[in-house]
Structure formats: C-alpha cells, structure tokens
Amino acid sequence: MEVLTTVIILLICLLVSNIISHYIPFIPTALTQIAFGIILALLFGELSLPIETHLFLLLFVAPLLYNDGRHFPREELWRMRASILGNAVLLVLVTTLVGGYFIHWMIPTIPLAAAFALAAILSPTDPVAVNGIAKRIHIPEKVLHLVRGESLINDASGLVAFNYAIAAVVTGYFSVWEATTDFFYMFVAGAVLGLVLGVLITWVRFTLRKQGINDVTFHSLLQLITPFVIFIITEEWFHASGVIAVVVGGIVHTLVREQTETMVAEEQVLTENLWTIVLYVLNGVVFLLLGLNIPSSMVETLESPNMENWLIIGFVIAIGIVILGIRFVWSYLFSPSDEKPTFANSLVVSLTGVRGAVTMAGVLSIPLVVASGEAFPERSLILFLAAGVILFTLIIATVCLPLVSKGEAATEGEPRQTDVQAAKQRLLQVAIQKLSKETGEYSEAVVYDLIRTYKRMSRRMQPEPESPEQQQKVREIRLLALKAERKYIHELLAQQKIDEELFVLFENALDYREEALSTDAQTGAIHLIGKMARGWMRLMGKFRKEKTGRDVNISAGKDIQLQALQAALHRLEEYGRAHDQKRIVDAVILEYRRMIAHLEHPTAGYHAEQEEQKEELRLKVMDFQRSEIRKMFESGEITREQAKELRRFVNSIESVALFEHAE
Question: CB of 606 within 8 A of CB of 523?
Fold first, then answer.
C-alpha cells in the first residue's frame, strides 16, 4: 500500500511539475522535478521508493534507450560513429582514470579504487535533461546528435567500469586482463543478442499477422514489452550488457519493419501514443526519484563533524569542473575530422554533458560493507559528491548553455528555431517521402495522385518562385526524357516493330511536347534543326522499308507509349544517380510515374475501392506528420506554440480531405 501511495504521489507531482514548467519555461522541467522530489523527501521522511540499480535499468533505462534506438537518425548515427563511440567508450575510460586520480589526490581519505568508481559513475551523460533544455534554447543539431548518440552506449560503459571499481574496493582484487575481456564480451555479446532478439521478435510479430492475429492492441503491447524481454534475456541468461542490447534491438526493429513489414495506420497511431505516455511518465519519475534520494544521500555527510559543509561543497564544484573540463578538452582535441575545432562548440559539447538518474542509481548501489566486514570507505561522502555533481551540471547547463549557444548560433548563422513555414514545408515533404514508399501496398494511381496533391500544396507555400536557372534545368531534364522516348520509338521503327502511321503519330506528339518546352531561342533552334533531320531520315527510310499494309493498332500504340515512358523513366533514374540534381530529377520522375500509372489503370474516376485506399493512405500520412511534429518539439526544433500551429495545419488538411470524401 505504501508503494502504491508513493507512486500515485509521484505521478501527481509529475503533472504539477509540467504545469509549472509551462508558466516558468526558463527552468528545465528536470530541475523542477528534482526540486519536487527533494521537497517530498523533506516533508515526508517516511516517503521513499528504494530501487536497486539492476531494477532501475530494467524499468527506466531499457525502454528509454530502446525508444531512442528506434528514432535515432541512422544516417547520423553512422556518419558520426567515430565521435559517438569515442565519447561513449574512450571518454568514459579517460574520465574514470583522470577523474579518479584527481578525486583521490583532492580527498586522500577516499581510496583510489573508490575514487575510480565515483569518476566512472559520473561519466555517463543524461540526454533527457538536455532534451528539456533544447526545447527552450537553440543547441546545434550536430551536438544534440552527438549527445544522444553517446548516451545510447555510455550508460553501459560507465556502469561496467563502476562495477569493476566497486568490486576492487570490496574484494581488494583487480585484474586488468579480466576487466578488459569482460568489458568487450559484454559489449559484443550485448550487440549480437540485441540484433538476434530484435529480428526474432519482429519475425514473431510478422508470423502472427500471417496467421490472422491482427489485433492492433495486441501488437502494440508486444512492441511495448520488447525492450524488457531483450534486457532480461541478455542480462540474466547471457550476463551481457542489456543496455547495449536494447539500443541495437530498437535500431533493428525499425530497420526490419521498414524492409519487410507494413504497419497498419491504426496500429502505428496506437503504438506511438502508448510510447508517448510511457516515456512521459518514465522521464518525469526518473528525476522525481533522483530528488527523492538526494536528501538521504547527503544528510549523513552534512551532519558529520569531521568535515566542514563549505569544504564539501567546494569538493563538489571542483569535481564538477574537472569532469566537464575533461569533456571539453576531449571534444576540442577529437572533434570530427570534417570540422575545425572551436572553443565555443567544444564548450557547448562539454556543457551538454549533464549527469543524471543513471549516476544516482549506480551510486546508491554501493554496498555498506566490504568483504572484510568493515564499512565501505567514505560511502556517505561519495553519495554526497555524486548527488552534488548531478545538481552542479544541471544548474551550470541551465545557466550557461543559453548564453553560449546564442553566441554559437550567431557564429554559425543558424536560426534559433525552425520557422513555421519551413516546418510546414518539412511536413509536406515528409508526407511525399512516406507516400513514395507505399506503392507496394496501394494502387500506384492513388499514391501518385496524393503525391501530386502534396506537391501542389508545397508549391503554393513556396516563399519565392523557382529561379530561371532552376526552370531551365527542369526543361533540360524533361527534354532528356523526351529524347529517351524518341530513341525508343526510332529503335522500334528500325526493327520494323511499329507501323509507319503509328510512328508518325508518336513523332507528332513528341514534337508537340518538345516544342512546348522550347521557350528560348537557343532551344527553339535546336528543336527546329532536329525536326528537319528527323524528317529527312523518315523520307529516306520509306525507300528502304518493306510495305506491310497494316492499319494503325490503337491497342499496340498504348503498349508502345507505355514502354516509351518506361524507357524515359529508366534514363531519368540513371541520370539522377550520376548527377547532383536529385530534387529536380525526382520531380520529373514523379511526372513520368504518374503518366505510367494512369496508362496502366485508365479510369474516368476512382472506383470505390480506390477511394477507400486514398482515404486510408491520406489518414496514415497525417498520422505520420503528427508523429513528426512530436519529434520536432521533443528535439527543441519548434516551440510549444509552433507545435500547436503545425497541428492545426495538419487538422485543416484533414478537414478538407474528409469534406471532399463526404462529397
């Protein structure tokens, strides 16, 4: 009953803290929640929720990191792999060694192994707090990707180093060889198990669907419990890193689903809504628990007569500065090879290294006694220092990041946040990209019609028309496609696979289309010369061609036109791969695909089934757009008001669509 009461109180505080953050936005929600936890601990001394480190990782870290793995941009993850792995593994080891020696030098009463343990548990960063800060201020996108990417891994590396250091204090034994081999085993085995289990669970879901088990609630719940299953199997059965396993499992889940499985729109909406609620609760409760445990971890040290309180606070500040300083030097010396290191950027990277709940959960797991039966050396002081450094990094980031990031933004010339018009354009582009992947399940005519609708909306919202250079490039690419069509028709004529009369009809149509594109003198002259040459070749060909006496075959003409369009489409795709004109080429490719779709499925209007497909696909795309709005808000790219404006924008599209459907 006490645990249930505590959970309900924490949830109420979670709601109240978010209300306060709405009216006091310059204070991160994480700090507000920590303050609530401290107040609860001071007001209700008996209110507590003790939680073991392993259980904390299972209940909080596993689902949070699994979700991060699902949504982390994989292109960025791969492009920044060297920097992310360096920060997540090597920087953790450097922080453990340098920070440990510094702590032992400054406070000799803390044994060297215990000092290493404290430095190790202070090395993992907490992206949740950084996300809260990023909602209020501009942080460069590359820095956010780096912090989020390293946080996927450094929890595991920091905890492994911490556990070995604690074992050295408790047992008095430490082997570099054993520690190194175990470290690599936990990482490699965790990654392999995450890959295997992620694929296996996705295969199970796919198989159940094939067997007719299509209940969306069932599949959403299965997705929700996936990180817990992966973590438990990895940790309990194979003694590998469950943290690494859930990260890899999240990435694999998205990759496999994109390649082999089409999630129905209803399931996608339900799953994302469930994840939103779970993440909202977990992120908030983590910091409430952190605040709840801070007073108990500090009280013994503050009441000790052996050390002055101001001196202990000085230790906290010194350790915090050294920990952030190590991160600053590392980020300056080992910045990505394609970037020139700058003081401002390195300072932003170091300040975003906020410590949080994983640090507190780890340090609270320090045993009370060692193997000999003696008390763990300076345990209460280590708890105080860890809690103090967490608060120090949060406060420093809250105060300094807005100042530093403004200067950085001014230097880089980046906007503080995404403009609403640009965000709307992004939503339309997201819809187009999503639609282009749906041709396998839905009618191509339906898909391309919707793509054309979204492209038309995008063009209407363009702040400026295309430049003359862009318009000329579009004409050149369309002429290139026409040339491919004409080449195909001439090849058929040379092989005597097309009637002369049908050939003339195609030539006239191509001439008309080419003439429509010839808007300047140079292009018009080239068109005229080409037309004269083709007329001469046709005249000469008549003397060599055997008379067939066949009439123009309309059905054959349709097939030939379809094949000519496909030949042009193939030529455009080749051109797009060889030249850096993707946006323009894709626009022309879309025109040809739409023409092909209408030729393959000629109708005066849509059948009832196509209308249903169109409506279902449109709603699916809108759900995807709403998910994109949530991502932009959570990453700090847009404000709360901008998010509301974008939701109204999507709602207006939906209203118009529903009205048209009703009509």
Answer: no
| Per-residue pLDDT tens digits for 37-78 | 889 888 886 666 666 778 888 888 889 888 888 877 667 777
CATH 1.20.1530.20 domain position(s) in the chain: 2-412
Name residue 399's amino acid: V
Which H or E element spans position 468? helix 468-494
Instruction: Count CA atoms closer than 13 A to 311's CA, side-chain side.
Output: 9
CA separation (Å) from 421 to 275, 425, 584, 607? 28, 6, 21, 35
Question: Does the pTM exceed 0.70?
Answer: no
Kindly report the number of other CB atoms within 10 A of residue 212's CB atom.
Answer: 7
Tell me the C-alpha distance between 275 and 640, whole Å: 20
For residue 369, what are the β-bridge partners? 375
List phi, psi (to 5°) of 496.
55, 40
Task: Tell me how far apart the alpha carbons of residues 183 and 153 are, in angstroms, rounded to a whole number.
Answer: 13
Please give the backbone phi and psi of residue 261, each rounded to the nearest 5 degrees, phi first: -135, 140
Q: What is the CATH number of domain 2-412?
A: 1.20.1530.20
Distance between CA 249 and CA 230 in Å, rounded?
A: 8
CB atoms closer than 10 angstroms to residue 509: 13
Q: What are the tokens at 334?
A: 């080992």
Which string of DSSP letters, residue by residue, matches 570-625?
A: HHHHHHHHHSS-HHHHHHHHHHHHHHHHHHHS--SS--HHHHHHHHHHHHHHHHHH
Please check whether residue 372 is in contact with residue 12, taking contact to mean a CB–CB distance below 8 angstroms. Answer: no
User: Closest Cα partner for 236 from 53, 66, 50, 54?
Assistant: 54
Question: How many Cα neighbours within 13 Å face the side chain of 200?
Answer: 11
What angle do the packed helices 379-412 and 112-121 form, to 10 degrees?
A: 40
pLDDT digits (tens, 9 = 90+) for 259-318: 554 455 566 667 777 888 888 898 888 888 888 888 877 777 777 777 777 888 999 999
Q: What is the DSSP letter of 374?
A: P
The contacts of residue 630 (CB under 8 Å, 6+ apart) are 272, 276, 643
Helix residue ranges per DSSP H, 61-140: 62-71, 74-79, 81-85, 91-106, 112-121, 127-134
